[in-house]
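Subgroup meeting minutes
Present: P.N., E.W., G.H.
Scribe: E.W.

1. P.N. recapped why we're keeping a running log of single-chain structure predictions: easier to compare across weeks, and new members can see raw inputs and outputs side by side.
2. G.H. added today's entry (171 aa).
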Amino acid sequence: STIQKTALILAVTGVLVSCGGGTDEPGGGGNSAGIGGSGFVSSGRITGFGSVFVNGVEFKTTSATFDIEGVSGTQGDLAIGMVVRVNGSIDAGGVTGNATSISFDDQLQGPVSVLSMPDADGITRTMDVLGVNVILDSGITVFDVSGNSGIPANTPFDFLNLMNGNKTEIM
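Output recorded in log:
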């Protein structure tokens, strides 16, 4: 069978990667927040838009700059599930803030190999990407086919039709 050339973005929310690391939220995600030299710093998954919602905080982005993998971008370059770093300020209640900059860089990028069949429960399966074991969860892994993927518009792409050789970007 032919290897499908696919630009596949896996917004892998709560996925375990063999390089480890802790999380501070149920279901994983590695979200963190703290005080940086220039104000508030938060790192976590994007959960909503209008502004940018990260770690339960709505960050206004009116004057924010965006760095997307080392290139200047816009809020439109972001997607739900991406893990971003937000610099800015936050109100005393911890619910809203103003972002001065938001940056995104993928965690891992490469071809899928050693893809397992779904487990008996149909919920999880594993794959390797450049030797890193990634665990996919059908309930929380988000698939987004984008870029020049060669896949026709509106083609369903999901947990079950992922194939060895698919090009992936894990966020």
